[in-house]
């Protein structure tokens, strides 16, 4: 529980009822999710039959998408209100995914090496100690398994686009969603992953186009980016 920002929990809990509204405050998350899922499916060598964990799942946009692709998916988060919305949406959609209100560190102590795939997307920049989450993720994935992180780079361009542009000018995401000081450079993420026993496989950028309401995975890691790691067998 020490690695929880209560302000962040309150902020995301307040958005819970609107999480699945594709035209609401979380619209950008809906727009980027297909690109994220395609990337995850590719690097994991397919999702069908895989046991997958979504760390910091919110109301389950990614968790449910992994389940729809055939994975046995568990989403964990510390905002119970968001998880309840995820459960309700699963009943409506007919896509079965499981949800638990538990920290990654606590689940790691309970279920080490239990997952073929662990995803931790847009979450590390919202906790006091991201390296602690990364260590937990490394414990949770089985040897030979895959890990996918995504977060936001820390540089002037990222500040201009992710905070000034997306939050203050365009209103693409709610104001106060991000704290620039918590943004993470790729070198930092790779170092923490390596120290946790993971091997970095691929670093890719995620570019969002608000006009087309879509995202693409490419070479530009200046703002949003993904890191695929693997736990040595």
TrEMBL record:
NCBIfam families associated with the record: UbiG
Official protein name in the record: Ubiquinone biosynthesis O-methyltransferase
EC number: 2.1.1.222, 2.1.1.64
Family to which the UniProt record says this protein belongs: Belongs to the methyltransferase superfamily. UbiG/COQ3 family.
Catalytic reaction(s) noted: a 3-demethylubiquinol + S-adenosyl-L-methionine = a ubiquinol + S-adenosyl-L-homocysteine + H(+); a 3-(all-trans-polyprenyl)benzene-1,2-diol + S-adenosyl-L-methionine = a 2-methoxy-6-(all-trans-polyprenyl)phenol + S-adenosyl-L-homocysteine + H(+)
HAMAP family cross-referenced by the UniProt entry: UbiG (MF_00472)
Coiled-coil ranges from the UniProt annotation: none
GO molecular function term, any single one: 2-polyprenyl-6-hydroxyphenol methylase activity
Gene transcribed to yield this protein: ubiG
A Pfam family it matches: Methyltransf_23
CDD domains: AdoMet_MTases
Pathway assigned to this chain's UniProt record: Cofactor biosynthesis; ubiquinone biosynthesis
Protein function: O-methyltransferase that catalyzes the 2 O-methylation steps in the ubiquinone biosynthetic pathway.
Listed InterPro entries: SAM-dependent_MTases_sf, UbiG_MeTrfase
């Amino acid at each position: 529980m020490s690695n929880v920002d209560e302000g962040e929990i309150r902020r995301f809990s307040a958005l819970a009822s609107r999480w699945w509204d594709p035209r609401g405050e979380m619209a950008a998350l809906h727009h980027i999710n297909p690109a994220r899922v395609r990337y995850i499916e590719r690097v994991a060598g397919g999702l069908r039959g895989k046991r997958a964990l979504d760390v910091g799942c919110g109301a389950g946009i990614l968790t449910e998408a992994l389940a729809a692709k055939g994975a046995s998916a568990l989403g964990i988060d510390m905002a119970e209100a968001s998880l309840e919305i995820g459960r309700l949406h699963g009943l409506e959609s007919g896509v079965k995914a499981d949800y638990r209100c538990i920290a990654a560190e606590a689940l790691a102590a309970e279920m080490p090496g239990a997952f073929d795939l662990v995803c931790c997307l847009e979450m590390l920049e919202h906790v006091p100690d991201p390296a602690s989450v990364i260590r937990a993720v490394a414990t949770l994935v089985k040897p030979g398994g895959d890990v996918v992180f995504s977060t936001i780079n820390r540089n002037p361009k990222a500040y201009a686009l992710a905070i000034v542009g997306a939050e203050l000018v365009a209103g693409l995401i709610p104001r106060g969603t991000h704290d620039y000081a918590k943004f993470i450079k790729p070198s930092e993420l790779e170092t923490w992953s390596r120290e946790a026993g993971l091997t970095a496989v691929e670093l890719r950028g995620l570019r969002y186009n608000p006009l087309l309401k879509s995202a693409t995975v490419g070479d530009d890691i200046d703002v949003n980016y993904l890191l695929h790691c693997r736990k040595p067998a």
